[in-house]
Backbone:
């Protein structure tokens, strides 16, 4: 979650809008959750 905070802060300072960082963080967190679930397979 430290990465999420850094990404939010970086994009807020670059653009002045909170929505860019929020959208990229939504993609990142979704990717993180999906990747974590993808390693489970039936034996």
Residues:
């Amino acid at each position: 979650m430290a990465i999420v905070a850094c990404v939010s802060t970086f994009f807020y300072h670059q653009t002045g809008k909170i929505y860019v960082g929020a959208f990229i963080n939504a993609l990142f967190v979704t990717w993180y959750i999906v990747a974590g679930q993808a390693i489970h397979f039936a034996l």
